[in-house]
Amino acid sequence: MSAALVLTHSGDRTADYLCDRLGGRVPLLRLDTDALPDDLDASFDRGPRLRAHGREVAPETVRAVWYRRPGPLRPPGRPAEDPYEEYHRGLEWAEALNGVLALVPAERWINHPARNAGASHKIEQLARARSLGLHTPRTLVTRDPGRLLDLWRETDGCVIAKPLASGYLERDDPSDDTAIYTSALTRADIDDPPDLAGAPTLFQERIEKRLDVRVTLVDGHAVALGLADLVSETPRLDIRRDEMRGVAYEPVDLPDDIERGVCDLVASYGLRFAAVDLAVDDDGRWVFFEVNPNGQWAWLDLVGGAEIWTLFERAFQP
Length: 318
Fold this sequence. Notes:
This protein is α+β, with helices and mostly antiparallel strands. The chain has 9 helices and 18 strands.
């Protein structure tokens, strides 16, 4: 049979949403890595096969692989009593599944994990975006307080800090997890800087924003929504704060050069899907911030009426 594969975990609400919307429109085979079905089998005889939930697919019949948010693999069936044997069983399962999936061409993945990884480095993103004609903020990555002081002076004290790798700090107790938002630096931060020696930090000139814009791309089709703060008189430094309460969503028409630049940027990584964060500053200039090759998007459908799910429906067609 022909089907689109969905690789994720059982708590993925975005996958739940899309699978529900697609319903019987597209044949789907969902594999939750933490709840694999007992009938799962990855086999190889005259050709590789993957069977689950009473369905069987071969690499050549896979329409697309939506690499959503798979987590650690928990093998199906009864666990081995010996933890070392169970660990080995997990390795064997992972190798069997990966061996079959490796035969699905990278162009059919949304997105192939290697391409996600290659597109996930903020420093490289900024350099590439600039080379494609997109405007980027003045950026400094350093652990040197002296260089930070120089940036502070050159920008008249308009400097923000943001994480390089992840904006989320996980702890043993999930209730103690910490979100790391973009934050403005104060004069006190400069006079008594934090311990920059711990790790390089990303600093940027603060952009005085008129509007935040989220662009979601699927196979070259872009959906842009403006995110406006209805609570503050001025836009939030980080629109994600306060769980995005008090945010209004409106469709935005991208200027031709901005849409072309964003599409070229995403295509240069070989991505079929990406979420891109932009802003329009007080002078009407469009500013690029970052690409998230596996970003969230379902909330834009649910509260913004973006209908991004229809782009996935098209992408899952043979």
